[in-house]
Design goal:
Layout (H helix, E strand, L loop, with lengths): L2 H9 L21 H9 L4 E5 L5 H9 L4 E6 L4 H12 L2 H4 L4 H14 L1 H7 L8 E5 L4 H7 L7 E4 L5 H10 L4 E4 L12 H13 L1 E6 L2 E6 L5
Parallel strand pairs: 1-2, 1-4, 2-3, 4-5
Antiparallel strand pairs: 5-7, 6-7
């Protein structure tokens, strides 16, 4: 580990946080078991999560291995509260299966009281020695991390569903395994743009694509999953 790499952790400390009851809410479209198996079978030590939301998925990755350190990259902007307000109005089944409307209200109230980033990190506070929060968005976050000689074993993309997020991960981290969410997401035109992005990167890398429900992995043909 280089000195610059170590400085990444020092330059991105956890915020000073109040203690409050965590409420878990994860945007899980299914299939994440294939990522858990990957972490376990390949002893993933350095994991970059692009788009951490409320760190629901982060907990799953951390629980897969006690050796995994995760850089959680997310802007944690005000728009996240707006999104949660919309969920409160519609209360889709995948939300109501995890939290009731009072808990959803409490998450929003906690964000107003403690901060958006603080609410997310509070959900993984017991793992704080294995989580480094970096506030930012892809693809800009990739250049920032490279300045610290950071080269993750695995990159999980669950952000804005835009091509630069995928292309940037490929270009800045050619040796990292790339995986992510939103395989089943349709845009307003009824297309599956994430599938297109994934297949384009897989072709560039001469890799195959493995998918399970909403989860996908761009996997080297030379390795067995």
């Amino acid at each position: 580990m280089t000195i610059k790499f170590k400085n990444l952790f020092a330059d991105n400390p956890w915020p000073v946080m109040s203690s409050f009851e965590p409420i878990q809410l994860s945007l899980d479209g299914g299939g994440r078991e294939i990522i858990v198996d990957l972490i376990k079978n390949y002893d993933i030590k350095h994991f970059l999560e692009v788009g951490s939301f409320l760190c629901g998925s982060t907990r799953k990755w951390l629980g897969a291995s006690s050796h995994t350190h995760i850089v959680c990259a997310d802007p944690w902007r005000e728009g996240l509260k707006t999104y949660l307000e919309k969920l409160k109005m519609t209360l889709p089944s995948w939300v109501s299966a995890q939290v009731d409307i009072f808990q959803l209200d409490q998450i929003i109230n906690n964000m107003n009281t403690y901060g958006i980033m603080e609410v997310a990190l509070n959900n993984v506070s017991e793992f704080r020695d294995r989580v480094t929060p970096v506030r930012g968005s892809a693809p800009e976050i990739y250049e920032y991390l490279k300045r610290y000689d950071y080269n993750p074993d695995l990159i999980y993309i669950d952000a804005n569903k835009e091509w630069p997020e995928f292309l940037g991960a490929h270009e800045y981290f050619p040796d990292s395994i790339i995986c992510g969410d939103d395989w089943t997401w349709k845009n307003a035109s009824g297309n599956f743009p994430v599938r297109d992005y994934v297949h384009r990167i897989a072709e560039m890398r001469n890799c195959k694509v493995i998918s399970e429900k909403a989860t996908w992995i761009i996997w080297p043909d030379t390795k067995n999953l």
